[in-house]
From TrEMBL:
GO molecular function, a single term: peptidyl-prolyl cis-trans isomerase activity
InterPro entries to which the protein is assigned, alphabetical: PPIase_dom_sf, PPIase_FKBP_dom
Region Disordered: start-end pairs: 1-106
Official protein name in the record: peptidylprolyl isomerase
Coiled-coil annotated spans: none
Catalytic activity: [protein]-peptidylproline (omega=180) = [protein]-peptidylproline (omega=0)
Organism: Chaetoceros tenuissimus
């Protein structure tokens, strides 16, 4: 027998084939649609995560910056406080030196003009002696030094300072004295009664006064 001939193109039914390929195409289209719907959703979530990371990073940077700023402010405050403290200490030291310069150490004799010497035993807290003003003092006069014999004394002696009512050695030795203070004054003859007069300390002898300032007239 001869080989059977294939049906002509007019007799071939390709409906099944078309149906198969059509179904496959629809499936692919459906898959593509699903991918298109799913992909934007994933991208949006990813973008949101990135934005959240950026916000968190900015927040951390902001907090770090604020912390550094606060630390710098605290350091500046501490520095200013330290500088203020040093300045106060400097001023206090300067003031003490000025006081020490004006008021010699207790018990140390200071030599002034005419050979007069004085030392403060106690610093007063009241008014300072004023020139031409009347003052009242308590005093003891000894011959030579603080162990010498007592020549004279008074519990309340008044005179006007700077008027020549007492020897110049007193007026020199009482300068800047304050009420309530006690001072010892050594007066040589040239600031006292001269080299030719003897009031109990011998001719040309030193006079040793122990003086407490009681009152200064306003």
């Amino acid at each position: 027998m001869g080989r059977r001939k294939r049906a002509s193109s007019d007799d071939y039914d390709d409906s099944v084939e078309r149906s198969f390929f059509g179904m496959d195409e629809r499936k692919r289209n459906t898959d593509n649609l699903d991918d298109e719907h799913e992909q934007p959703s994933k991208s949006k979530e990813e973008i949101e995560r990135q934005r959240a990371k950026k916000r968190a990073k900015k927040q951390r940077q902001k907090e770090k910056k604020e912390a550094l700023k606060k630390e710098a402010e605290e350091k500046e405050k501490a520095k200013l406080a330290e500088e203020k403290k040093k300045e106060e200490q400097k001023q206090a030291k300067k003031k003490r030196k000025e006081v020490e310069k004006k008021e010699p150490p207790l018990g140390k004799f200071i030599k002034t003009h005419k050979g007069v010497k004085y030392c403060d035993i106690e610093i007063g807290t009241g008014p300072v002696i004023q020139d031409r003003k009347k003052v009242h003092v308590k005093y003891t006069l000894r011959a030579g030094d603080k162990r010498g014999k007592i020549i004279d004394s008074s519990g309340n002696f008044g005179f006007r300072c700077g008027k020549g009512e007492v020897i110049s050695g007193w007026e020199i030795g009482l300068l800047r004295m304050k009420v309530g203070g006690t001072r010892h004054i050594i007066v040589p003859p040239k600031a006292g009664y001269g080299n030719n007069k003897d009031i109990g300390a011998g001719v040309g002898g030193l006079l040793y006064f122990e003086v407490t300032l009681l009152h200064v007239a306003p």
